[in-house]
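User: Hi! I'm working on a homework problem where we have to compare a predicted structure to a textbook description. Could you give me the structure for the chain below?
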Amino acid sequence: MATLLFITTKKTWGGSEPLWCDTAERALAVGHRVTIAMPTPEKLHSRHEKLAEMGAKIIFKAPWAKPTLLRRVVLKLRRIKRPEAKWWRDHLPEKTDAICISQGGTYCAMNMPGLVPWLFDSGIPYLLVCQSNRAYALPSFQMRRDIQGLFRNAFKICFVAEENARAAARFLAMDLPNAAVVQNPVNLRDTGIVPWSGDTKFRLACVARFEIRDKGQDLLLEALSRPAWKERDFELSFFGNGPDGEIIQDLIGHYGLGEKVRVAGFEPDIRKVWAAHQMLVLPSLSEGTPLSLIEAQVCGRPALVTRVDGNPDWVEEGKTGFLAEAPTVYHLRAALDRAWDKRYFWHEMGKAARDVCMAKRDPDHAGTLLKMLDMAASRTKTES
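Assistant: Happy to help. Predicted structure tokens:
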């Protein structure tokens, strides 16, 4: 059996966390030893508590503080050149066979001081899991060289969309022969189709974090502000939570959409959402492969999405949904109009979306990632 280390860059629970958690649970179930390192959370999630009950050791990493002048003098006298890497050396198991680093984005490992130099010094094979891509928030040029080394030395770089891998290769100006595509689990206990709502009103749902710089809810609201849409018999509900909920609510009033658009808040039972709604609308500016898209398709619903990152891998224009060619008000309006013209075909499109989605889904996402970790751990044992 191997000793595995899981590092997450996230201190709050989100869509990036279930994949590594499922993989850690599987590793424990087959007899591997598991250690987890994560930023100190305000509250431990129930999934983390379950891992601890199964035998995982959890280590919390407090935020790095720049050493005081006196501390720098002491470090220099002790000849400690990279003190930020010392925490990793002191707190993590020496006999680790392989490491999985789960990142909310593509380059979030760089936000954990000392992690990258420790990885290089340790010689332990590691996998990077890159969950999303923000083209507008690329790291600095100075950091880019370190990222090139981080990616080059990785045993595997796991992306959730091929386009995310291409974007990383483009930014780093390097080939990524060690890249792989993995899939996230869906938040559905029942993966059967959800019966179609017989409501004559056309009900849309935007299921996404309330953060407009990524999810583009502001663009969608402006696109719906035209007089033609105010006359159409539809309803749009925003499901989710996040920092921009108040902005979304203000924009609904600003565009005079209060009679047709509402902020529904967070709904943990996604099947309940799709029992009452007929199509997903995601006006995203950046994504990985959004779980809300896959969940909608599994439930038998078509989707209108922007052509960004993993979205076009799962939506075929006019057959399983609609593609706005860019995350702009103009392109969203055009896609919304095409969708409205085909509104009486949404039910059939939803069934087609489900068929295609189920055929493409990885039935064992945790097993796929664990297999890569086992391969990396085998290399460690072979070399030792």
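For your comparison, note the following. The domain at 3-183+363-383 is CATH 3.40.50.2000 (Rossmann fold). The CA atoms of residues 224 and 333 lie 7 Å apart. Good luck with the assignment!
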